[in-house]
Design a protein that fits this description.
Blueprint (H helix, E strand, L loop, with lengths): L2 H10 L1 H22 L93 E4 L2 E4 L2 E7 L11 H18 L5 E7 L3 E3 L5 E2 L2 H11 L24 E2 L17 H10 L4 E6 L6 E3 L8 H27 L10 H8 L11 E3 L2 H12 L20 E8 L15 H12 L3 E5 H8 L3
Parallel strand pairs: 3-4, 3-8, 8-11, 11-12
Antiparallel strand pairs: 1-2, 4-5, 4-6, 5-7, 9-10
Helix pairs in contact: 3-4, 3-10, 5-8, 6-7, 8-9
Length: 441
């Protein structure tokens, strides 16, 4: 290439060359600058604070100048709830209304035994039910009256084996009760006794006490006498009763036996009373003197009584040799008339024999004290009966009762009337086989 051409080439590309040289120089300077950069890492130290001890003055405690009386809060014992049982009239047209279930009430409204609104079960209030020999009653307070007189052990009823079965049935009934149910037992025959001074809950411990007192009652023993019957044979722990109830119309009645015990049942506010007996008995008041009875006739009667005792002693000795229970008579009068039917007994005074409506009136007055303001009237029914009176009457095998005297209208008629007045139940059992058939399994 000629010199002229070279000069022309450089003149044409002079700007491009200068740019390239400038770029190269700057790149060289950047490299040199980077090589002289120093990186300094500064690490900050955490600050530590030191607490200086401070001396604080201590204050001396002073004694309390004002006495403080701290009273412990007494815890109230749980009390049994009182329930109002409503029994409306049956066979009434009731609209089909579905009600919601109420918690805390068994079954809610409308549940029960299928009787609709009729009875406590239909409203969800389940009262405890008691069943003695097929006679049923409901209540939270149960009072049982047991006849332990000689008349309950006569052969025609079933003798001592029948009475033993009756005792067993009562204990079994108590064992089936809810422990919240209150009960008491009264026994009569040669005196009146209560198993407990007041009603007690049907706990296993109280039922065991009943069994201990009941076992020796009218039980056959090795060296027993013909008179070893009645309340004198009850086990230890029973309460003997004294005094009379001044309640008209029986304030002047010969208050013995089930009459006085039924008044105690009313006084203890029993819901259901169960009487197990052989007859209505001599519920009377004397209204006149007895007819004349000569000294000679009285002496003859005393002689017959002595001979009858000797015959009974000999008969029971033979029974014992055969392994049988002894024969028992209601009283010396019945014993003497059994062995000497033609013997003339002393006459009795003129008497007024009380009937069911009079006895019921006296019981109702004793029971009439209101409890905690709970009314007797429930609104649906005019008036609720304060208690039910239920009777199991033990008769002879031939079906005839063993009354002291039929002047009061007879045992069956009076006990049926008592059941009717109190919405209770009445049943008769005739002889040992009938008692065995009615006993629970």
């Amino acid at each position: 290439m000629s010199e002229k051409k070279k000069n022309r080439y450089f003149a044409k590309h002079a700007k491009s060359s200068a740019a390239l040289i400038s770029v190269g120089i700057h790149a060289l300077l950047i490299v040199l600058a980077l090589s002289f950069v120093a990186v300094t890492v500064i690490t900050k130290e955490e600050k530590v604070f030191e607490a200086k001890p401070v001396s604080r003055p201590k204050m001396k405690l002073k004694k309390l100048q004002v006495p403080v009386n701290v009273k412990k809060k007494k815890s109230q014992k749980p009390k049994l709830r009182k329930r109002i049982v409503v029994q409306p009239k049956l066979n009434q047209t009731v609209p089909d209304i579905k009600m919601p279930e109420i918690t805390g009430v068994k079954g809610g409204i409308g549940s029960g035994t299928g009787d609709g609104i009729g009875g406590a079960g239909g409203l969800g209030f389940a009262m405890p039910e008691i069943n003695i020999f097929g006679v049923k009653g409901k209540g939270e307070k149960i009072f049982i009256i047991l006849d332990s007189s000689n008349a309950m052990m006569v052969d025609e009823i079933g003798g001592i084996p029948a009475f033993k079965l009756i005792k067993t049935e009562l204990v079994k009934m108590l064992e089936r009760l809810n422990p919240a149910v209150l009960f008491n037992i009264g026994v009569y025959g040669g005196g009146d006794k209560l198993f407990f001074e007041n009603m007690v809950p049907a706990t296993p411990a109280n039922v065991a006490k009943v069994k201990a007192m009941m076992d020796p009652l009218n039980a056959v023993t090795e060296n027993m006498r013909d008179s070893d019957f009645g309340t004198r044979t009850i086990g230890p722990g029973a309460v003997s009763l004294r005094g009379e109830f001044e309640t008209a119309p029986i304030s002047d009645v010969n208050q013995w036996g089930w009459i006085k015990l039924s008044m105690y049942a009313a006084q203890q506010k029993a819901d259901s009373v169960f009487l197990l007996t052989q007859g209505w008995g001599a519920v009377f008041s004397n209204v006149g003197e007895a007819a004349d009875f000569s000294a000679e006739k009285r002496q003859q009667w005393s002689s017959y009584v002595s001979q009858a005792k000797e015959r009974l002693k000999a008969e029971n000795a033979q029974r014992k040799s055969r392994g049988q229970a002894p024969r028992v008579f209601l009283n010396s009068h019945r014993m003497t008339k059994h062995y000497f039917p033609n013997a003339i007994a002393p006459p009795i005074p003129k008497r007024h024999y009380f009937k069911a409506d009079e006895v019921y009136a006296a019981m109702s007055k004793t029971h009439a004290v209101e409890q905690s303001g709970v009314p007797r009237s429930a609104g649906i029914k005019k008036k609720r009966k304060p208690f039910s009176f239920n009777t199991i009457l033990f008769e002879k095998t031939d079906g005839t009762p063993i009354p002291y005297d039929n002047a009061n209208g007879g045992s069956v008629a009076n006990f049926k009337k008592m059941a009717s007045l109190t919405q209770g139940e009445f049943r008769t059992l005739k002889g040992l086989k009938s008692i065995e058939g009615a006993a629970s399994d």
